[in-house]
Design goal:
By secondary structure, the chain is of the alpha/beta class. The protein has helices at 2-20, 31-41, 100-112, 131-140, 154-162, 178-185, 189-205, 225-233, 260-275, 284-288, 290-295, 308-311, 340-344, 347-357, 367-374, and strands spanning 67-71, 117-121, 144-149, 168-172, 210-217, 238-243, 312-315, 320-322, 333-334. A 9-stranded mixed β-sheet has the order 6-5-4-3-2-1-7-8-9, with helices on both faces. The protein binds S-adenosylmethionine and iron/sulfur cluster (2 copies). The site of one iron/sulfur cluster has 12 residues, from loops. One iron/sulfur cluster (SF4) is lined by residues 306, 308, 324, 326, 356, 359, 361-364, 369.
Length: 375
């Protein structure tokens, strides 16, 4: 009964969202489809063709990336057990985040390279006092801004965020179980939920706001994944999943036993829910690989080519650029000393890009790298 009620509410909200976005959900969307829709809606970027092919040296990759990920700070106000940015991992805390002017110059270079959307991430981006200025600036120069946040500061700042022109907010919530939430993310679920409620207020005020949830799938929250989808769908909020990775932080849940049959069961349930109209923003192809990933994280689908260094641009808070997150790869440039165009089209980046394509790496199945590679 409860499930039926959720389904009905979810469908109404799905219709509402699709109307607001002026598209019909004829088939399930992914978060990348959503970004494409927002890009098309945004006025055409006059700078997007600044690199005519004739200017590019022969033999050098000629296309700009599609997605920019800008880590605006390494600092965080949360303590997620699995994250290298957690507030209690003091050694990596940095006071060296690039200043406002430098960040603005980077955003301008992102536009000039022909990229149309920028994902503000971190650490926790809302900790930067100038974050609203940066988001507003990015919207003004023609970028679709996406804010990825833990949401803890939204009760304080949602109105300010609303004034920036941003229309796309992603909140990280992995579980609705307060005990597990505290264990995994190090802060109280109550505080997190206040952040989520503030996001809803933002959408009430600005009805075309897109709010999504991103949830890291661990061995501990597997059981509740369909409940997470139902709960957020009932608010007309989409959800995307990414499996837990060993990114260098101590994985405190490593002694939780892996139940691979449960992984398979839950992924099948998610795929069925997606087909029936729930706002699950992953592709089926991506979700289908989860069981194999949990079984053996270094095993990727046969004939998979990682395109993260072609499709995505990663810039850290000190303006270093790397082809992907992995320590296997060197820094290919720094925007303090070189221009983005020089770095992106450099022979050195191209060399590393080939290594990425050939999976000469640690291997991963992260949402932000694998989904663009599957397109
Ligand atoms: C590093 S956070 C930065 C933005 C913001 N602080 C937040 O939590 O949304 C970006 C995303 O990475 C995810 N993440 C962090 N460590 C991870 C890990 N070891 N494996 C998979 N995802 C991880 C987080 O859950 C979050 O959704
Ligand atoms: S996942 Fe986000 S909120 Fe959690 S510690 Fe990392 S940066 Fe902070
Ligand atoms: S698959 Fe390899 S190259 Fe691609 S993002 Fe993951 S670690 Fe980097």
């Amino acid at each position: 009964m409860k499930c039926e009620l959720f389904k009905k509410t979810a469908k109404i909200n799905i219709q509402k969202i699709s109307l607001l976005r002026r598209t019909k959900l004829k088939k399930p969307q992914t978060f990348l489809d959503q970004i494409d829709i927002l890009r098309k809606e945004k006025f055409t970027n006059p700078n997007s063709l600044v690199l005519p092919n004739s200017e590019i040296k022969p033999g050098i990759l000629s296309s700009p990336p599609k997605y920019a990920h800008l880590n605006v700070t390494n600092r965080c106000n949360s303590n997620c057990t699995y994250c290298i940015h957690a507030a209690n991992r003091k050694p990596i805390l940095s006071q060296n985040d690039a200043n406002t002017e430098k960040m603005k110059s980077v955003l301008q270079q992102i536009v000039d390279l022909g990229i149309e959307s920028v994902n503000f991430s971190g650490g926790e981006p809302l900790l930067r006092p100038d974050i609203f200025e940066l988001i507003h600036f990015s919207e003004q120069i023609g970028l679709v801004s996406i804010l990825l946040s833990n949401g803890l500061l939204l009760p304080k700042y949602w109105q300010e965020l609303g004034k920036t022109g941003n229309h796309y907010l992603i909140l990280s919530i992995d579980t609705l179980d307060p005990e597990l939430f505290k264990k995994q993310r190090g802060v109280s679920f109550k505080a997190e939920w206040k952040g989520f409620e503030s996001a809803l207020k933002l959408r009430d005020r600005f009805p075309d706001y897109v709010i999504n949830i991103t949830a890291t799938v661990t061995k501990s929250n597997l059981e509740e994944l369909p409940n997470l989808v139902e709960r957020f769908s009932s608010y007309g909020v989409g959800i995307e999943f990414s499996p837990l990775h060993d990114l260098g932080a101590e994985l405190k849940e490593s002694n939780v036993p892996l139940d691979i049959v449960l992984v398979q069961k839950k992924i099948s349930e998610l795929i069925e829910m997606r087909a029936s109209g729930y706002l699950i923003l992953n592709s089926d192809e991506y979700l289908l690989h989860f069981p194999k990933f949990f079984h053996n994280p270094s095993q990727l689908p046969e004939s998979y080519i990682c395109r993260c260094a072609n499709q995505c641009l990663y810039i850290d808070a000190t303006l270093n650029i790397k082809p992907c997150w992995s320590q296997t790869f060197p820094i290919v440039g720094n925007l303090e000393n070189e221009s983005l165009q020089e770095i992106w089209f450099s022979p050195y980046f191209e060399e590393q890009r080939k290594r990425v394509n050939q999976l000469d790496c640690d291997r991963c199945w992260l949402l932000c790298t694998a989904e663009p590679s599957l397109r």
